[in-house]
Specification:
This protein is mostly beta strands. It has two domains: 96 residues, no CATH class; 168 residues, Jelly Rolls (Sandwich), CATH 2.60.120. It is 3% helix and 48% strand. It contains one helix and 21 strands. The strands form six sheets. It has a five-stranded mixed beta sheet, with no helix packed on it. The chain starts with 22 loop residues before the first strand and ends with a strand.
């Protein structure tokens, strides 16, 4: 087994972990007497990208079946002359449960390959495991359902590689997420190693990029003759879960009477609306007696 070589590493800059929030659009449009419209999101759904670094990563070797490599700065994948599996887990809590997954790719900084190209299989882990306790004799359980088999390119001197794991991420979000096991397919001599979360530079560390959409939610605000509201006419964006304050302004000769929020009468003005679901909001003005 070769030791993890450090002289091939190159710094490519910092990749920031970011968690996207839902963008909520407030559109108030007027048509004659009449109607205002309040919408959430962009037409057809809004796309977001979550960039997530690994929380746990290690490997296990059959020839040293009771050894743990949880603190290593690299993890190996090999089928011959010995079997070596890599294990990695990405926390998925930042992805909303209502998300529609468009794509998911895992990114590694890899060492130079020996005996490649070869194929590797990503299998979903379905039981809990510890980075500091996993060994060949203490491996977590995996499922063969929707395994992803990828071709690893030949690399001279190392470089970045990325693989499509979309269906595995979809499956993980539907159940409990424990990460992936990476195993070489061919039983020929080939050796690959990837940097781990213990790598010196952030840009070398494994990350998962998930692109997803959130459903569009629409809000409708109607207004009777005799006044206006603020937010003004036009489109405005808010984060999901934010509170929108809407103020009614009667025209001369009119007074604010009440709101109707989802059929419930509310007499306070301004009105704070939590942007969390579909709403129907009406504002009623009445003419003052002369």
């Amino acid at each position: 087994m070769r030791r993890c070589r450090r002289d091939f590493w190159k710094a490519f800059g910092l990749i920031l972990l970011c968690f996207s929030m839902v963008s909520i659009g407030l559109i108030i449009g007027r048509a004659g007497a009449e109607h205002f419209q309040l919408e959430v999101g962009a037409s057809g759904g809004s796309s977001y990208t979550a960039k997530i670094y690994s929380a746990k990563d290690t490997y296990a070797r059959d020839k040293t079946a009771d050894s743990n490599f949880g603190s290593s700065t690299c993890m190996y994948v090999e089928a011959a002359p010995e079997r070596i599996y890599a294990f990695i887990e990405f926390p998925l809590q930042s992805i909303p449960s209502t998300a529609n997954i468009i794509s998911a790719r895992v990114y590694f900084f890899a060492g130079d390959t020996v005996g490649y190209p070869a194929s590797q299989t990503f299998s979903r882990i379905v039981s809990s495991w510890g980075e500091s306790t996993l060994t060949w004799n203490k491996q977590p359980t995996v499922t063969s359902l929707n395994e992803a088999t990828v071709l690893v390119p030949w690399l001279n001197g190392g470089g970045y590689v990325n693989f499509d794991v979309t269906q595995l991420v979809k499956d993980a979000l539907e159940g409990r997420a424990f990460g992936f096991r990476i195993k070489q397919v061919e039983t020929k001599w080939a050796n690959m190693f990837y940097s781990t979360k213990e790598a010196r530079f952030v840009s070398w560390r494994p990350r998962l990029e998930v692109v997803y959409e959130l459903p569009v939610v629409e809000y409708v605000l109607s207004i009777s003759p005799g006044g206006s509201t603020d937010p003004a006419l036009g489109a405005h964006s808010y984060a999901e879960g934010s509170i929108v304050r809407i103020t009614a302004y009667p025209l001369s000769g009119y007074r604010f009477d009440h709101w109707e929020l989802d059929g419930v009468l509310i007499y306070e003005n301004p009105l704070d609306v939590l942007m969390d679901r579909n709403h129907s909001l009406n504002v009623i003005f009445t003419e003052l007696e002369s």
